[in-house]
């Protein structure tokens, strides 16, 4: 997965005290970087979690990132070899303030897993455009020649049982690309500070 220049996880503080946490991909270690970024913010900080253009990555990293905002519980379910598996968030969420997830047509796979979990569990308002719709789970398998093949083993579902393959996730609030971040900040302001 080619990401170009820049960190996988970055934080921008807004003048009103809120913050934008941008996650470019769920590569190895990204989940802990998201958790650390959110934990470093003042308590109850309003956050825009920017997943626009995030092509996904490792499901386990998306689940770890979910633990920044969810105190445990189901992130997604999927089939693997005929067995139903549950992907869960770690306990100890640091982020308890208002949360908006910013998405677009480039938000895919593991980024959709995180978005769907936060949306289904009522933790975030999703703003932007419908996501890509990659609902399959791949696992790496070593081949005899030393190369690795990614095998599709099943489809994942959100905590509420929604499948996204081909359809994506619909935002709660639609916003065009040029106005999406401003709209996300408006929604965030409307959510206020939790009591």
Account of the 3D structure:
With 195 residues, this protein is of the alpha/beta class. The radius of gyration is 16 Å and the shape is globular. Helix 1 (30-39) runs parallel beside helix 2. 45% of the residues are buried. It has a single domain, classed as 2-enoyl-CoA Hydratase, Chain A, domain 1 (Alpha-Beta Complex), CATH 3.90.226. A hairpin with a 5-residue loop joins strand 1 and strand 2 (19-23). The chain has a 6-stranded mixed β-sheet, with helices on both faces. A 4-stranded antiparallel β-sheet has the order 5-4-9-8. The longest helix has 12 residues, at 180-191. The protein has helices spanning 30-39, 59-66, 110-120, 180-191; strands at 9-13, 19-23, 47-50, 74-80, 83-88, 99-103, 125-128, 136-142, 148-157, 173-174.
Can you give keywords for this protein?
alpha/beta, 195 residues, globular, 4 helices, six-stranded mixed beta sheet
Strand order of the largest sheet: 1-2-3-6-7-10
Q: What's the number of structural domains?
A: 1
**CATH architecture heading:** Alpha-Beta Complex
Largest sheet report:
6 strands, mixed
CATH class: Alpha Beta
Order of helices and strands: EEHEHEEEHEEEEH
Strand residue content: 25-35%
Number of helical regions: 4
Q: What would you report as the Rg, rounded to the nearest angstrom?
A: 16 Å
Instruction: Please estimate the helix content.
Output: 10-25%
> Poorly predicted ranges (pLDDT <50, ≥5 residues)?
none
| Relevant CATH superfamily | 2-enoyl-CoA Hydratase, Chain A, domain 1
CATH topology: 2-enoyl-CoA Hydratase, Chain A, domain 1
Distance between the termini: 41 Å
Number of strands: 10
Chain-averaged pLDDT: 93
Structural class: alpha/beta
Task: Tell me, briefly, the overall form.
Answer: globular
